[in-house]
Design goal:
Blueprint: H1 12-20, H2 22-43, H3 48-75, H4 84-101, H5 109-141, H6 145-174, H7 191-212, H8 230-241, H9 244-274, H10 279-307, H11 309-332, H12 342-381, H13 386-414, H14 428-438, H15 441-452, H16 459-482
Helix pairs in contact: 1-6, 1-7, 2-6, 2-7, 2-9, 3-5, 3-13, 4-5, 4-7, 5-13, 6-7, 6-10, 6-12, 9-12, 9-13, 9-14, 9-15, 10-11, 10-12, 11-12, 11-15, 12-13, 12-16
């Protein structure tokens, strides 16, 4: 492992530019999870299980591509370092592919299946070419235990604000519902404007993240020049991921992504058909999410400093169980106000604010915990493998987030949810089945809560790892000077 010169202090403009890199991934995730299923099912007319199958295929391809991209990024040598060439190369392709998803041609369902599959594969590929190298920059931008949490908080906050802001624009501008009930999320024509705006934001944020951190390239780690065989690379991959704390976080992300993927995919179905919300009310719920993001952004670092990252994340997961399922359980128990009442909407506003707060805080803390694994692995293997570690984590979230959408798509098919359904036209027994099928997701949160306590890297362990790596660097420098 080759060490580099001590970098200058990371200043605010670089932090903000790096944090802006959180916007593309959240825009893509939010758009695909919120709108893709209802757009291709209720607007375009593709069966929900077909959409879900496309997502399953792309997830399987991800299982092959993400670790490869992460490993290549870890070992790539260029005058722009290991990460930045991938970042710059991804900007235009991922933006173009994302735009094309929202303007499908009027063709047979089989051709539409191929069209969606190719574009989703392109989005996943080029998104990984940006997101994995960009995420892998953080452990080298700062090794400070608390500063990492702060930067991750900033990146997560900007990403969520960008994703939710665009969602609100979609509800209020691009997919605006007309007074006569026409338009809205169930109409096709507004999705092109939404896709174009999203594509421009994605490309702009990627370029900003690359340019804003470009000056740090001389201070980033450089992999040794070598020719590694496939067997060597596979052996290094196995040694890198064979870390108990990493495996714990991998399992937790698998569980949490399943729940969040299912929730996001069914969000509009619940809003329109279960709660009977208008599109203005849905936009206002997104507005409440902004409040939740700010609260989560402020709460996560403070709670981390007070009780530690792991315990803080456990608190967030426990709270998330109640926020996600509470209103639905209340409706099934017959204690929620009737649809269309101010009381119901007030409860949903409070629930969204609370749920987004703990979800934001939890995402920040789990990402911070993962970044602390980097030095723990480096102590054990002698290599910095940020790209590979973050690839495995990103893969788990993408695969199971898609798995959540897959579950949702087949759930809609199994309960015979009608296609191109009008508001208020779905039989009550079908709506009730949708709710009953969703409730078991609470068990996923409980499992994640229990698994988290196997994670063992706290502030003391992290600082010990940093001291070990510094001592090795000094010893290596002395050995090199004596030759």
């Amino acid at each position: 492992m080759t060490e580099v010169n001590e970098p200058p202090r990371l200043r605010l403009p670089a932090k903000l530019a790096y944090a802006a890199g959180g916007i593309p991934n959240i825009i893509e995730q939010r758009g695909l999870s919120t709108f893709l299923l209802i757009f291709y099912n209720q607007v375009v007319g593709l069966a929900p299980q077909v959409v879900a199958t496309v997502l399953l295929i792309t997830s399987c391809v991800d299982a092959l591509l993400d670790p490869v991209i992460g490993q290549v990024s870890d070992n790539f040598r260029s005058r722009w370092g290991r990460r930045h060439p991938f970042i710059y190369a991804a900007a235009l392709p991922v933006a173009a592919a994302y735009l094309l998803i929202w303007c499908p041609p009027h063709v047979h369902a089989n051709l539409l299946f191929v069209y969606l599959l190719v574009l989703l594969l392109a989005v996943r590929l080029f998104s990984a070419c940006f997101e994995l190298p960009a995420s892998a920059l953080l452990p080298e931008l700062t090794s400070n235990y608390d500063e990492r949490t702060t930067i991750i908080s900033l990146r997560m906050m900007l990403g969520l604000l960008g994703g939710l802001g665009l969602t609100m624009l979609a509800y209020r501008v691009f997919l605006k519902e007309n007074p006569d009930g026409s338009g809205g999320v169930l109409a096709r024509h507004g999705y092109f404007s939404y896709g174009l705006t999203a594509a421009l934001l994605i490309a702009g944020a990627i370029v900003l993240a690359g340019v804003g951190t470009h000056s740090r390239i001389p201070y980033l780690s450089k992999p040794p020049a070598r020719r590694a065989t496939l067997r060597t690379m596979l052996r290094e991959v196995a040694a890198t991921v064979n870390n108990r704390s990493f495996v714990v976080l991998l399992v937790i992300n698998l569980l949490m992504s399943t729940a969040s993927g299912a929730k996001a995919a069914l969000e509009l179905y619940f809003s329109i058909y279960f709660w009977g919300l208008t599109q203005v009310q849905m936009a206002n719920l997104v507005g409440a999410s902004f409040v939740g993001i700010i609260l989560g952004f402020a709460l996560a670092p403070a709670l981390s400093r007070w009780v530690g990252k792991r315990n803080a994340a456990a608190c967030m997961i426990a709270c998330g169980m109640f926020g996600v399922a509470g209103p639905v359980l209340g409706r099934l128990a017959g204690i929620m106000p009737a649809n269309g009442t101010a009381a119901l909407f007030a409860i949903l506003l409070a629930d969204v604010t609370f749920t987004i707060c703990v979800a934001t805080g939890n995402a920040i803390l789990l990402t911070a915990l993962l970044n602390d694994v980097v030095e723990d692995v480096a102590v054990k293997t002698g290599r910095r493998s940020e790209g590979l570690l973050l690839a495995a984590d990103s893969l788990s979230r993408k695969v199971v987030s898609s798995g959540g959408i897959l579950i949702s798509g087949w759930m809609l098919a199994l309960i015979a949810f009608p296609q191109k359904a009008e508001r208020g036209a779905v039989p009550p027994e079908i709506v009730a089945k949708l709710a009953y099928a969703y409730i078991p997701m609470v068990v996923v949160y409980l499992l994640a809560f229990c698994v988290l306590f196997v994670y063992r890297i706290d502030r003391t362990v992290h600082e010990s790892n940093l001291r070990t790596l510094r001592q090795r660097a000094v010893q290596a420098a002395g050995t090199s000077a004596s030759r």
